[in-house]
Amino acid sequence: MTTQRVLITGGASGLGRALAEAWLARGARVLITDINDERGAETVFALKGRGEIHYQRANTCVAEDWVRLLEWVEENFNGLDVLVNNAGVAAAGRIDRVSMDDWDWIIDINLKGVVQGCRTFTPLFKKQGDGQIINIASLAAVACAPAMSSYNVTKAGVVALSETLRHELAPYGIRVSVVCPSFFQTNLADTMRTPEEGMDSTVRKLLAGGKIDADEVARRILKGAGKNRLMILPHSEGKMLWWMKRYLPPVFNYALGDAGRKLKRKLERNS
Ligand SMILES: NC(=O)c1ccc[n+]([C@@H]2O[C@H](COP(=O)([O-])OP(=O)(O)OC[C@H]3O[C@@H](n4cnc5c(N)ncnc54)[C@H](O)[C@@H]3O)[C@@H](O)[C@H]2O)c1
Questions:
Q1: Which residue in 22, 154, 233, 243 could disulfide with 238, CB within 3.0 to 4.6 Å?
Q2: How many whole angstroms from 250 Cα to the centroid of ligand 1?
Q3: Domain range for residue 176?
Q4: Residue 242 located in a structural domain
């Protein structure tokens, strides 16, 4: 097997870091990028004994940073095999509470950041006649829970983008997958924006209660991507919800409606 060259955005923490470890264990050459330089340096220090790992500061919302990353991989890796658009943030709140500034913030990072990654590297992948794009969405794209509209919309957008590119880019030898994980413990809550009282601790509990950890999520992503799956659902509850949405829509919609009623009572108690 040839050595893979892998770029992972948001690779200084959580899932991105776990993916870096998983690829290093397979002998890949890995470039992680992030906006958190301190965590980037820590991650490189912690993982450098496992193989070739590099860090570059790059904000996925900034076009010039993407141009710099393309130049970096051409100079240092002489190409790229896998682009993982992983960097992301979370937001929660009712539609009449979340500000338009917060909508812009999350769309810029979670959706347009992924679009910029795909736009930047597609010409290189076309030139190579080979490449793989793995976009990290969320189970939120499948099961759109109440009071999460901005996050749900960005992740559903990433699924639509990935489905489109899957069929657009396959004739050029480019494989595209999208990952929809349920909750798992990371630092995602630290950057979360919400105007809702009590939402921060609810999300922290959901992350802490994840049934599998980031390392296991990463292992399942590599397995699914290795099989060139379009939709990768690392959690068993994610697979079940996806199945229910397609084959038992009344049950699926009842469950989400029930969640909406419970949330209304809870938020009213908190305010
Ligand atoms: N943790 C979960 O339960 C969960 C569930 C479903 C999907 N996800 C998705 O997994 C991905 C990784 O998140 P995580 O849970 O590991 O969180 P995390 O906060 O631990 O890691 C995200 C990383 O992205 C970086 N980042 C944020 N904005 C950036 C930007 N504009 N440019 C570059 N880097 C940026 C952060 O600095 C951080 O290091 C996200 O897309 C998230 O939406 C997470």
A1: 233
A2: 32
A3: 5-237
A4: no
